Amino acid sequence: MTSTPRELTYAEAIREGFAIALERDPRVLLMGLGVPDPKGFFGTTIDLQKQFGADRVMDMPCAENGMSGVMLGAALNGLRPVLNHQRLDFALLAMDPICTQAAKWHYMFGGAMKLPVVFRMIIGRGWGQGPQHSQCLHSWFAHIPGLKVVMPTTPHDAKGLLIAAIEDDNPVVFIEHRWLHHIKGEVPAGHYTVPIGPARLARAGSDVTIVAFSYMVLEALEAAQTLSEDGIDAEVIDIRSLRPLDQNLLLSSLRKTGRLVVADTGWSTAGMAAEIIAIASESAFDSLRAAPRRVCFPDCPTPTSPSLSAEFYPRAGHIVAAVRAVLQRPPNDDDLLVPAGVELDKPNPAFTGPF
Amino acid sequence: MVAALENPAAATETELSVRLLESMVRIRLVEEAIADHYRDQQMRCPVHLSIGQEAASAGVCAALRADDLAMSGHRSHAHYLAKGGDLTAMIAEIYGRVTGCCQGRGGSMHLVDLAAGFVGAVPIVGSTIPIATGLAFADRQLKRDRVTVAFLGEAATEEGVFHESANFASLHHLPIVFVCENNLYSVYSPMEVRQPAHREVFQLAAGHGITAHQGDGNDPLAVHQLMCAATDHARSGRGPVFLELKTYRWREHCGPGFDNHIGYRKEAEYLAWRGRDPIANFEFDLQQSGEFDAVLHAQFKDRVATEIAAAFAAAQRAPYPAGSTLMDHVYSSP
């Protein structure tokens, strides 16, 4: 397929990925509360029902648990369904079908059946998403053998990993961050896949390795820019696939830099950042020249008020501060200053809510 | 092997009755053999025996086409066997051998035989109900005329997924029959601590707009009759059906023995249900109506005994899965 350089938003890239998957394979089915609604799931499913019909792009009862099981049965019996959740928090009602059924189905029946199903979940942030519309529990899913878990950061990877997830014969948890939907990037036209597994080198550098997940890759790149002004050359790795996890890029980077900061979109305790640091400790201990640092949520639920959420969410400045620490540089109080006019509870100046 | 009838309607009444009796007897003989061998400590997994509940499986599966689908829960031996699941693969699976239906990765609580249309059983109560609903959904989407049976116990109707599945199946008129064996206990918890006395289980399904019936789960002909009507209904696009079949498990919830002595149910209740033995009573009825041939039945039981002995011998001879295969089948490859 020829690719014409052109820019799409992340949301447009997801929509295009869906359209291509639906077009290429009549077994593909989109299910989810609000999938065909006029707002089109943050623009990611706009008009797909008009294009592909009401029996392939479907709304559903408010029954995340039951419908997850229904999608497993559909996948076992000839369809390739994608179940869409507007917030990850709703998918938690379905931990049995996802973790206890889907993840084990191929294994526990001795490989007799394949389970091509995608559970798509969106992480909310800011604008009062509060305790129950913002949980970043990707580490829960990444903990489970039998699942694949991806968290694309760029529009290119969003489309390519979405198509790869739909074409995969295993259950895939596909996690988007709400604050990525408006991001623009180059997206090839037509069909392509980004393989599930390899990490992405988002920025090459030599002094420190910043490993980041999903939206935090953007903050990490901003941090790297700030650090470069102080003569610090940061490498940024985008862990777009949590399971399987690409250790090679991480370890080769650490052998070069000897220093590690991990920026996650979630909590630190028993989280993905801890997993990255464990891998570094087990497999690149001799290369480490300083104790690694984590930049994660503080150990409390997500608050709602803008004043509290501004305090809660780590941002580029926190990553910069962590990098200074692992490089044994003096702290800089300016790192955490908020530039005039920036509103921390909005993904971009154009955002006006409601969610 | 007892296969599903190719054309249930074409069988004569006597042929059907003999088929039902033989299906029940075979299930019981298999379950009793499991109970007898369990003390050898070679079946190293929980077993939930279906003794006393054979009529539901026999009656339901005799009303199915061979290509119809079924799923079940923790007490699934009878469902698997009645649907035509391979006995040798089932016993080997309970023995944890590589020749088992899950290559030793499942055990008694994870039976599967895709060739027989038995798509799987899992022990998390209610979890196969939405999956079976999804099988029926896919058949509807792909315009196949199969029916799916979700076998469940009455406790599974207390799970949210039962209601979510029933609502969705009703909404889309899916070709599924929910077969609920009400054996009055969830492990040791009786109905009165779990469900209101003034509401029958089948009324839950009726509340979802599903055609629902209650029947004698120990009468294989009554079950078969209900199920024939149910499959006609579901297959013709008129939507799902729910059948509540009253029955009783004789042995302990889990394991080979009896557990009346531990005090969760009364001996008198147990004895009353023993008096409603689906096999003895049906055999008696057939004797009364002159449909029972003692010689043929004895020959059948001999054949089944031989088949069972061979299945156990094969399982005991079969190798365990090699340790080197531990990581096989975590993910499927293209």
Mean pLDDT of chain B: 96
Unreliable sequence segments of chain A = none
Number of strands of chain B: 8
- Global geometry of chain B: globular
The span between the termini of chain B is: 34 Å
Descriptors:
heterodimer; A: 355 residues; alpha/beta; Rossmann fold; 2 domains; 7-stranded mixed sheet; 5-stranded mixed sheet; 13 helices; 14 strands; 36% helix; B: 334 residues; 6-stranded parallel sheet; two-stranded antiparallel sheet; 11 helices; globular
Give a short synopsis of this structure.
The complex is a heterodimer of chains A (355) and B (334). Chain A is of the alpha/beta class and 355 residues long.
Verbal overview:
The complex is a heterodimer of chains A (355) and B (334). With 355 residues, chain A is of the alpha/beta class. Chain A has helices spanning 10-24, 40-43, 48-52, 64-76, 88-91, 95-108, 138-142, 155-167, 215-229, 247-257, 272-283, 306-312, 316-326; strands at 7-9, 28-32, 57-58, 80-85, 118-123, 148-150, 172-177, 184-186, 200-203, 208-212, 234-238, 241-243, 260-267, 293-297. Chain A folds into two domains: 7-186, Rossmann fold; 200-335, Rossmann fold (3-Layer(aba) Sandwich), CATH 3.40.50. Helices cover 36% and strands 18% of the residues of chain A. The longest helix of chain A has 15 residues, at 10-24. Chain B has a single domain, classed as Rossmann fold, CATH 3.40.50. Chain B has 334 residues and is an alpha/beta fold. The A-B interface holds A 29, 55, 60-61, 63, 65-79, 96-97, 100-101, 105-115, 145-146, 148, 169-170 and B 69, 100-106, 110, 112, 114, 119-120, 122, 124, 127-139, 141-142, 160-161, 163-165, 167-168, 171, 328-334.
